């Protein structure tokens, strides 16, 4: 019976095994839900955040997830607007990933604001000068776009698609999809940028502050670039991971390699700008503020190793792995993609936490921030949510057009 | 007519959509900002007419006049009263607490009787009956401890106890007692008063004059006035002591010296003054000169204290060349200093000719007592509580049969805390009149809560340190929050019950009589347009409009008088010779030098709840307090920053974390007092350690006074 | 740097004489009760406790006996070019009013804490939990400032309500509320400081003593090179103290 819900012509593991798999994530998710309820009930005092670290794990998590979720809009852009048709074989995966990343981030954000009931004030009393206003606008709009992109996928489910209305709806939605891809690309570019802008405009935080172009600090552009570089990389990683897990081929290596190449190309562009930016930061922003490069680092959690890991190990190395023939070897492609993703996570972490930890007032000192269980459990909840939705989608939705062909016995 | 499912759903949907076109949902949505601000569990702020009334702080030893903001007649907050000479608008963190402490969780809410390990509430009637009975049985051996150094209630208590047969009347140890002893040994009379307002060069020997010593708020106002912002300072302040404490932090010079060496430093400065030709007609000068020249030359002092000769020569020069120099001596922690260093410091004032001069030291007369049989302040200050309790603990002194404790917390606030508690245990019947459930109250058989400052009539007469006689009133501005009474009234009721005649029916009458006697005293005036230090400097004192004094005092003004008792102060060189020796600095010993701050309250208040926020995290983190030592000392001891160490001295030990603080002299470990309560509330209880417990009581040679301002400690 | 300072005809400012501050904490305690900040039993966790006024201990970083200390009281600097204002997504904090006081509108604040991140002076405090007063103590709340629920950011307002009271009083006595006498409006911390370390007034009004004080050669502002253009000035005769007001390269 359950089998009749599978996409046409594919095999799936037994229901019991699948339930067991979901069960594990459900437990993680449930723990997260409980801590979420506790946070809503008691307030975010129950977290490890404080008046130095108003932004912590949650914001780092949001930023990382949003950057990594960028695969969706960027792949959409290339597929629909630029017309690289081959990407249709992986676009569905990027859409779901994007949806998961953004809806997950929204969930965390609703926890993170002190007055969740007022969260919509950003629309009601907007401050047009605030990068955060832009973020609030774009993220919510883009989540709508992602929903619009995800819905036809659901409607194409074998049983649902038998209903004529849903079938037609799905078809119509597909027809207008390039429009939404366009809107999505625009919104997404903007909020990736605004997220970077949020840090770059903090002119009294020399760790994060950047000059820029017109109203946008350089971080605006750097965040866009790093997102569209790492987004496709995560898609590749997820796809590879799903193949490993299911033991089935889902897309051709060529497609993944193409995605990795796109990511790598963007990473190269990003690397150039990131190096320029870092140079300008060290020689411009910091001395102007009376600070030195060395003063930006402290101890282990804020150590220079993070800096070099981010801008050498996670930029130069993956660029080489992803843009040279090395890419042909899965080990290099996957580790290149992995490093690119790690790099963007480190980047978001240091901009969020290290930027606040760095003592600007000369008579203050570095403070250490440690996220506590409430932040970890809720973050894992989002990851569990991602695994559950992705598993269900894989099992029941026709995500991978090539799956049937690639797995013919 | 039936409503089918379809129609129902349609109605609901239509209704929902329709509502969107009304202002209702939008209004509700917009109102989110209002109702998310006003949850039922967020306290409402009071509303009503705002007005201001005045009173005097009794919680803060600095004795500030207060201006109380009220809303609809209820006190809201306390600020300094700009018209009061001890406040002039300034207020300490402790005096600021006067209003909210009415609602302190630590308050004793009704009379309580010990029952097992805890207490049970009883009525005032029951309490009086019981006490009359027990005190009647204890006749001839009733002792009293008071922590109120300025109130007329001491007259009632001492007369009452005296008539029952006193086993002793003791004030909690204070700088006032040490100074009184010094003045007495020097052949003088009256209470030493320091005219900071008119002084231009102030040498501070140990005393934390801007924090715990005397009228600190007034001292700071005087200091501030002599330092107009943005201009060249018009005064010079030099601090001598083991740490650069809050006082030293704003002084022009800090001369590091151990507490035990303060007398040596004073006499070392005297040496330079004498050499420069200073002389005095005061009795004992020649012997004094011989004593100083015999053992306090620059090399002697250097050997004993490590202070370079030119440093003290510089101080002597600054004092000698000043128009109005003043020397103040006191304990860096506000207690336990010997009388000899005070005499040594005072001898500098004698050498400089600064006694009973504007900007110098005044010998202030005591205000007349009004309760028959009452002790004078001088007599009260002569009692030596630590010595007495130690005697009781050791069995050398018979334990009194009953003890009354007023506004005092000897079980926490005395050195050798464990010994003192042991002595208290030996006293079979103890009554505390404490407003808060402090450590001593917790040991008592009966707790009869005193109303707080804003709930009672009370008074404040010339706190120690004041440069002039001063008297002001506290006025009740609200009904007692809990079932508490003014102790003065309780004593009078009890006395009637026990047929002890104390002349008065209630405490208000006592205060009125006190004010009436002040009105008759010559030279007194109400400080309004003319302040006492201006009179000291030569401005004519305004006349006192006699009949209106009560009215003026209840309106927040203070009665003041500039004057001196006629008695000649001498040098007391024999005492100095016995008590002060410029020995050789001991090797390797680490000396504990405690410090105290008003923001951690007094032993009777605990840490006022809002003041806890003002304590830095270099003093308290969680449940641990920090001791301060410099890096050289830390290295010598092998302890590291942030480490938890154990301090051991005199058989007691305390935990502490290490704070490396370079403004502590080498060989000294500096420790905050006011922590380590085992009573009170969440704001005090269990916060850190009480380092007073490490200090042993030592008898000062030549004076017989108990001292404990420093102790050798082991740190591991 | 970024942004521009707004100019206001009336510019309330504080001048803090560091050489007079003993670090007693009376200003902090005054602010707590003046502005309905709840008593905090765990106040020793300085990263979590709320103190609109905070007294920092400064040191010259030398070893005994060359060591020196100073105390630096820190209210909101009421930046002329406030880093915290432009970032707020909902205009819950603004610098829009004569006097130049940076407002904080609690019913508007969504608690995103972006302003907390942007302010380099650690002036902004978040309500981690709903405030609780010991039983009965809420009777001593001030009617002049609202009680904040949890989840919003709060900060020193220069006791804004006192300005309103001063203007009311001026009007009542027929004076010009826009040209208050020196001392007609002072904040709670300034009023209560026993050392007289704090001065307050209209920086633009020549009748007010702060107008002259900020021209003193020993006057400085915190992090001036970042362009925050604060309305709080510090004065110290000690050079090492003045140098701690900003970051300097070795070559400077
Ligand atoms: N718990 C509790 N909450 C209450 C109430 C209560 O009784 N209890 N009362 C409610 C009522 S009736 C009221 S009116 C509110 C009052 O509460 P709020 O409106 O919050 O009033 P305040 O707290 O006094 O001031 C808020 C901020 O506004 C700034 N401000 C004041 N005037 C101006 C101005 O003209 N321009 C700008 N830009 N900023 C300004 C101040 O600096 C301050 O930071 O509280 C409401 N909330
Ligand atoms: N001088 C000065 N004037 C002010 C202000 C100020 O700060 N200073 N603040 C202004 C502000 S912000 C506000 S909100 C207003 C507040 O002023 P008002 O609107 O007058 O509000 P309240 O004083 O809170 O309450 C009004 C009366 O309503 C009564 N009441 C309570 N519940 C009920 C009920 O159910 N029914 C009836 N009939 N009566 C009830 C209360 O007992 C009280 O007497 O004042 C404004 N006016
Ligand atoms: S009240 Fe005055 S002296 Fe005390 S800490 Fe504050 S500013 Fe400094
Ligand atoms: S000090 Fe901080 S909170 Fe105050 S105005 Fe400046 S940036 Fe804003
Ligand atoms: S926390 Fe409040 S005031 Fe601060 S930026 Fe967010 S909404 Fe604005
Ligand atoms: S914050 Fe309050 S006053 Fe301002 S618009 Fe919203 S509801 Fe109105
Ligand atoms: S000005 Fe008012 S709000 Fe600001 S720190 Fe001082 S007392 Fe607090
Ligand atoms: Mo209101």
Total separate domains of chain B: 4
Unreliable runs of chain C: none
Radius of gyration of chain C: 18 Å
Mean pLDDT of chain C: 95
Q: Could you report the average pLDDT of chain B, rounded to the nearest whole number? A: 94
Number of strands of chain C: 10
Report the sheet with the most strands of chain C, covering strand number, pairing sense and barrel closure.
4 strands, mixed
Q: Strand order within the widest sheet of chain B?
A: 5-4-16-15-14-6-7
Q: In one word, what is the shape of chain B?
A: globular
Order of secondary-structure elements of chain C: EHEEEEHEEHHEHEEH
Structural class, from helix and strand content of chain B? alpha/beta
What's the count of strands of chain B? 29
Q: Structural class per helix/strand content of chain C?
A: alpha+beta
**Annotated CATH homologous superfamily of the largest domain in chain B:** Dimethylsulfoxide Reductase, domain 2
Biggest interface and residues each: B-C, 84 and 78 residues
CATH fold-type name of chain C: Alpha-Beta Plaits
Helix residue percentage of chain B: 25-40%
Figure out the total of helices of chain B. 24
Percent in strands of chain B: 15-25%
Question: From the coordinates shown, what is the CATH architecture of chain C?
Answer: 2-Layer Sandwich
- Termini separation of chain B comes to 92 Å
Features:
heterotrimer; A: 409 residues; mainly alpha; Formate dehydrogenase/DMSO reductase fold; two-stranded antiparallel ribbon; 14 helices; 2 strands; globular; C: 252 residues; alpha+beta; Alpha-Beta Plaits; four-stranded mixed sheet; two-stranded antiparallel sheet; 6 helices; binds ligand MGD; binds iron/sulfur cluster; binds molybdenum atom
